[in-house]
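Lab notebook page, bench 4
Experiment: in silico fold of construct C2
Operator: M.H.
Input chain length: 156 residues
Purpose: comparison with the prior construct
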Amino acid sequence: MRRKDREITDKQAIYDIIKKCDVCRVAFFDDTFPYIVPLNFGVTFENDTFTFYFHGANAGKKLELIKKNNAVAFEMDCSHQLIEAQASCDFSMAYESVCGTGFLEMLKEEQKEQALSVIMKQYTDNPVSFQPEVVKRIALLQLTVKEITAKSNKIN
């Protein structure tokens, strides 16, 4: 990382940033160009390990690409605020961001409700329930993080 003064290495601090985000962009290997998709997500941080969960259709390009190569990259960001200055080139942006890599896999039927609960916890503290017929129709994906980095530029 070029800007070491903005690097965040404390994993709890990284988790705190993730909890503020509402979209995770996942990049897949495709034939000519990367394929990137913004996704709603949930995250767990246990035993010093991050695990992300995503949901989507039971068919489509994401699932086809995972079958070919399940190595992915991800990015999320939050806390955006323009930092104005006298000169245009001195403007900046406050932000917090997290990037990383890992391996994505489809979850089995018996793991789906737990993963959905983690996703819902990212967005609400309200109690949730799931209709079994709906759960059967969707795919749930688990991203096991291999590497993770974070950066922050805050207004003083």
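Observations: The chain has a mean pLDDT of 91. The CA atoms of residues 28 and 62 lie 8 Å apart.
Next step: discuss at group meeting.
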